[in-house]
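ok new one. same drill as before - structure tokens go in, u give me an amino acid for every spot. 353 of them this time. try not to just spam alanines like last time pls lmao
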């Protein structure tokens, strides 16, 4: 272990990503407490993978008394408790805002009162909205929101807002503008803003890790919490071809959950806090069709079906430049995509979430 053992609270530590963070911290000798609501929307039952060497507290981010009790004497918070996904859009706005926004505000208030020195926030690439683009004539550009008429006609790629030429997608950096395109994305931006405001008011030093598309064992299925890799895996396991929206050429950055856990460990163990936002990705963009094809091959399933369907809250291309995280957090090599997909294919399907 690097440095002394730390007392760490992991919120949402029974979930997909949070549980891997707990395991990594326990393996490194840290004293870990998990606060998780074990909501039926997220868990069909108490997961069988919970780490026996961590302390588990059934509780909610909206319970200020519980938060203040459990944060006494804590060195670091790793905040993963959140509702994720597109859901029902604005109709789910109050639910997402209560859990992700107000819940984070309660956590921050308790952390200020208990003088917790450091917070590692699970943020997301969704804060950017569309990814970064370059026009051959006009240089870097932010595309306009995609129009329903273009999507219906199968025109999925954005064009230059100045000259109308096709745009080339490029890796997005932490300095690019935030432009959330869904209720969930807006609440993740809100979490970051709340955390950095609290830091300026003598709250904990904040490391915001902007996760890109995370996959790996324990991925949930058939809920708001299910990512595209999990959805494809469930479709293949049911004997159906994975259904690929749009034309399948959307680019994403698929990063293995163990690499996400390692980034948390780096941020927590670092002698001085790494203040700011950091992309955590694989460094190699891949298309949604590539993901579906790789999973089908690994599971011996049917070839993907490209449907042309689209969702209003989706963006076309977004993938990471992780140069800042590699330099500051020294993340090191990532799990190769092919190895990670084979592992995901062999992992048991997880229940409700």
């Amino acid at each position: 272990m690097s440095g002394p053992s730390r007392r760490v609270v992991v919120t949402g530590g029974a979930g997909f990503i949070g549980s891997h963070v707990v395991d990594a911290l326990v393996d490194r000798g840290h004293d870990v407490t998990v606060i998780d609501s074990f909501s039926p929307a997220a868990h069909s039952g108490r997961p069988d993978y919970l780490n026996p060497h961590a302390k588990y507290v059934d509780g909610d981010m909206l319970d200020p008394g519980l938060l203040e009790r459990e944060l006494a004497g804590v060195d670091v918070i790793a905040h993963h408790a959140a509702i994720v996904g597109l859901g029902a859009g604005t109709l789910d706005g109050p639910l997402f805002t209560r859990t992700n926004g107000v819940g984070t505000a309660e956590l921050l208030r308790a952390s200020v009162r208990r003088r917790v020195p450091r917070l590692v926030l699970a943020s997301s690439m969704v804060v950017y909205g569309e990814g970064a683009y370059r026009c051959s004539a006009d240089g870097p550009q932010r595309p306009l929101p995609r129009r329903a008429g273009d999507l219906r006609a199968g025109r999925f790629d954005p064009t230059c807002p100045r000259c109308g030429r096709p745009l080339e997608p490029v890796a997005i950096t932490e300095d690019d503008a935030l432009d959330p395109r869904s209720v969930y994305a807006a609440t993740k931006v809100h979490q970051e803003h709340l955390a950095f405001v609290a830091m300026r008011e003598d709250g904990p030093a904040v490391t915001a890790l902007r996760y890109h598309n995370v996959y790996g064992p324990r991925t949930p299925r058939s809920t708001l919490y299910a990512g595209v890799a999990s959805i494809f895996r469930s479709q293949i396991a049911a004997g159906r071809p994975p259904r690929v929206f749009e034309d399948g050429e959307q680019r994403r950055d698929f990063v293995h959950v163990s690499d996400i856990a390692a980034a948390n460990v780096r941020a927590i163990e670092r002698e001085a806090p790494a203040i700011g936002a950091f992309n955590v990705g694989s460094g190699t963009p891949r298309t949604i069709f590539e993901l579906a094809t790789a999973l089908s091959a690994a599971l011996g399933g049917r070839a993907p079906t490209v449907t042309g369907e689209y969702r209003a809250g989706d963006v076309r291309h977004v993938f990471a430049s992780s140069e800042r995280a590699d330099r500051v957090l020294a993340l090191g090599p990532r799990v190769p995509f092919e190895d990670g997909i084979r592992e995901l294919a062999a992992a048991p399907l997880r229940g409700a979430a």
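DSSP finds ten helices and 16 strands in the chain. and btw The chain has a mean pLDDT of 93.
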